[in-house]
Structures are given as C-alpha cells and as structure tokens.
Predict the 3D structure of the following.
Amino acid sequence: LRRWFLQNELELFKWRFVNNPPEDRAAWLRAKGLQYEAISRDEYEEIKEELHQALSSRRDLDPAAERSEHYKVAFEEVVDLVRQRRVYLRGGSAFVPAADLVSIVATAVRAQWSRRLATASHQWPALREEEADRLASFLEGLATQYVGDDYSRPRSGSAVSLADLPTVSRRSFPLCMHNMHAKLLETKHLKHSARQQFGLFLKTIGLSCEESTAFFRAEFTKKGMAADKFMRDYGYGIRYNYGLEGKRQDWSAMSCGKIINSSGANAAAGEHHGCPFRNYDEGQMRATLQQMQVGAQDVQYILDKVRGQHYQVACGKFFEARHKGSTLIETDLGGINHPNQYFEESQKFFAPKDEAAAAGQAA
C-alpha cells in the first residue's frame, strides 16, 4: 500500500513541479533546503553551445528543453545522467534541464515521504480497530485498484492485425506477453490463466475475435488436436473475452497490479501466466534478460529492483533497455502500470522508423 501511495503521489508531485512557473519552483527548492539554483541568463549564454551538444542526441527531450531552465547541481547527485552522457559537465557540476531535475527532486521527496509513511505504518495496527468501519477497508483496498487508462479496446493508430503479430511480438511485447507467446509457440498450448491474460491482451491491441481464434487454433492443432475439438474446448473462452458469450461484457486487458497480485505461475506444471519479474528466480531472470540482449548494467539494475519487489520499475527499465535511446518517465514514477501501456509506448518509439522505411521503399 505504501508503494502504491508513493507512486501516485509522486506522479502528482512531478506534474505540479514541472508545470509550476520557474520562480515558484526555485522558491520551493529554497524552502526545502534543496540546493538546485537555476543558472543565470548570462551563464546560459556562455555555455549554450555545450548544452546544445549535450542535449541534441537525446530523443526523449522536446527541442524546447534547450531553452528551458537549467540547474547546476553537484555531479555526484546525477550519476545516472552523467553515466548516460545526458548532461553537460563543467568544474564538477552538472547542468541539468528542468525536465530531468524533477526526477532528482522526486528522489529526495520520495525518501522523505517513505520515512514518514513507515512511521504511520507502525502506528496503523493500533488505529485499525478504531477505524474498522470508516477507513480500514478503503485504505487496504487502494493498492489493488487500477485507475489508469481504459484498455478495453485498441487505441487509434495502435491496432495491429494477425499479420503484424510476428513483428510486434518480437519488439513491442512486454516480458509477460513475450513469455506467454514464446511458450505457446514452443509447446502449442497455454493453460486457462495464461490464455485469459494473453488473449485479452491480443484483443486490446487490435486482433479481432476471428483473428484471435485463428491464431490459437493454428498453434493448438499443430500437435494433432482436431480443429473441431479446439472449437468445442476453447472457442467459447475466446468469444467470451470479446463479449460475445456469457455476460457479454467488453472485458479489458489485465493491469500490472492485477497480474502481479494474481496467484503465481508454476512453469514446471505448464503455467506461464503472471509477471515474470515476480515469478522468475534470479538465475532465470538473468538468463532471460541476457538472451534478449539487455546490457549488463541494465540487467543489474533490473535485478536490484526485482529484489526490492519493484517489479513495475524493473519493467520500465526493461523497456528502456529494449528501446535504445528512450527514457520513460514511468520508470521514475513507479514503473509500467499496464502491459498495453508498454505496447503503445513501444509502437510510438518504432513509428518514425517504420514510416521512414516505408517512405524509402516507396521511393
């Protein structure tokens, strides 16, 4: 619950911080004793060429970032930015654009809030009985509520067809969906929980009921299952996901919170649903990441987050590692919240390359 609260409060804090006027941000930083002073206009003019060179290679920043406020901070406080060569260094100081400063400030804010929440948590058992009727069920249920975007149907511009599946599964599926897709191709079968999780995802990225049926039938029948038996045993479940049977509800794909909190998968028993960052042991996770050509530094970062049970943050870093040059604000805000969010961000990342390739072929 504390992690959930921190994640959402930090998201709100970051939005407010970025959208406040520069003078208000500076006043807030001074009031909190955070020594991040915006550089003067004269200093900016002196080093603007160096700032341009440092920021020009970054695809994650709006071009206007070069003209935004820059802050001079000790380089030790932004080691990650320095390591990735995302800031200009001079005289032991890093010059950080306002878009990156929010992440640094949020780290300090998160640490302070975390300490205060730990204190409140220790006091909660004594208060729970007193607040049983009024607050207990509300507070304890907050962590499992998904309040993000609706993914009951594909967004405009992101829908895919069955013909697109080989490409998008290789480059744009989050690890959970990549794992289930790989196991389906390998074993020609998925058990109920995996079919439900994976099937709803395929529905909400754009596959029609007919395409989804054809996809699963093609794989399940490769080991000798008759097509009519497949339709008897599994056709109803696919149609149910699309709201064509049973309650006829337009079901959404499962959020990360629901996937993580569901019963764990047992690969030895042929179950491959759930969140790999939660379900894999460290050796299996390391081997999987290395097989997917994730760099050693990113592998270590992901494993550190997994040990701390920050599975969604690990997924955010996995996205960045698989999409070179990208930076997800979600990684700092608590990680990926939904498999479809991962998928849509990946599609946005590859869209310019696909458009350029299509233009080249047309020429």
The first strand starts at residue 37 and ends at 38. The chain has a mean pLDDT of 84.
